[in-house]
């Protein structure tokens, strides 16, 4: 490089030129490589043809005049600086409220203020969903069709695979200025909604198939009489929940943009606040309806065929946005794999929920899984927006070149992503304590009356979120290096892992609490038996 050293600067050292806005960068990264018109094509001539004509005199004449003007300007600046040294510039103020490219300045205080309320609201929504789940598990359809319980985590997890991914995409588009134009806003929103309807319909059917296969493997039998009910219930639940939550996400992102709030901080928690409750309620009522009309052999097949027939219409709507069409063609693997991962969590739930030692697990499962998924979705969306603003797909900033960063750099540095990770980790224990206390007030007889359980429950929540936040940093870097959009590829995996980790760790908490309680009871019995007659 002829002795020239190239250094990649951090965002705070840079001022992006207006002609190369991040919105254009992200648009270019999604639509493919930047196209250059013929009028801008530069044909390189051999270096000897022009440069050889320059002499030392011509170079000196061309350089000296600009150099003299620059020197005079710098001298004038020095005189002014010396004059104003130690004085206050009256009448002059400079306050950055918003950068030209749509990014709002954030501090720890603003991040906390914007995240705490949505997280608490989402926790209350998931708490309500847990109470609903504790009720519907005793309904005849859930008692008769056990595989419906296996279906709960993957269907509830669709909010992470679809709605949270949608919220993250829209938040990135809003922060990079892509939806400021009304016409472009309509195109982006309609194509994104059409995309999640296609994904919800297909993944809903696949979730039912996965639940049936896992049930058949665990019980070594397959009940074909319940296949139609399970498939129809899953498809309708996924479709209706995706439509309702998708519209809600659109309203939240646009509203947050207008009120000057970062959508990354609030969109995904609010999606989760109603996502679990809406999905569980729809699943309960739809499956009960089909269970009551199970004698009608044509009802469930017609429902499945009807919703599948709508897929071509959604594809036509999605075609108006090439990046969305790319997701529709190549974005299936993350959401399907995430659904499979969540299904294993559902299998754990199916095997434990009806046992006495796991009483109350139905209430805590949506909370521990949902809180972990919410926090990691926020962090993933924030890192994705950060990379869209300061880099291009396939090129990691110099300070993020390491694919497997030191955990200390993820949680303990002054970088904005490290600060947000600490804020999110700090919210875990207070949030769960609030939700635990509310559950104790509402359903106290279902809550294990043990301080040891509370300690293990909080420890499990911290372990879950810590692992997820670190994996978010790693996965975003890897996907960005592969020129993939983290909004579409990381959140499904992470929320699926959150469901599996949450369900597994919660099961372990109940098991340890039961073992310790049984040992204490045995010790009490032995002491009573060995006492004086």
Q: How would you describe the overall organization of this protein?
A:
- The protein has 533 residues and is mostly helical.
- The chain contains 21 helices and no strands.
- Helix 8 (182-219) crosses helix 12 (311-318) and helix 8 (182-219) crosses helix 14.
- The longest helix is centred in the C-terminal third of the chain and has 39 residues, at 491-529.
- It is globular, with a radius of gyration of 28 Å.
- One of its GO terms (cellular component) is membrane.
Please mark out the parts with pLDDT under 50 across 5 or more consecutive residues, or reply none: 1-9, 12-52, 77-103
The succession of helices and strands, N to C, reads: HHHHHHHHHHHHHHHHHHHHH
Helix fraction, binned, reads: over 70%
Continuous helix count:
21
Report, as a whole number of angstroms, the end-to-end distance: 95 Å
The helix/strand class is: mainly alpha
| Tally of DSSP β-strands | 0
The coarse overall form would be globular
- What is the mean predicted local confidence, pLDDT? 75
- In this structure, how is the largest beta sheet organized? none
How large, in whole angstroms, is the Cα Rg? Answer: 28 Å
Strand content: under 5%
Protein name: Solute carrier family 41 member
Main location: membrane
Organism: Canis lupus familiaris
InterPro entries: SLC41_membr_dom, SLC41_membr_dom_sf, SLC41A1-3
Name a few traits of the molecule:
533 residues, mainly alpha, 73% helix, 0% strand, disordered N terminus
Short description:
This protein has 533 residues and is mostly helical.
How is the secondary structure organized here?
Layout: H1 22-31, H2 47-51, H3 56-84, H4 108-136, H5 140-144, H6 147-156, H7 158-175, H8 182-219, H9 227-258, H10 263-292, H11 299-309, H12 311-318, H13 322-330, H14 332-352, H15 361-390, H16 407-411, H17 416-426, H18 428-442, H19 451-481, H20 486-489, H21 491-529
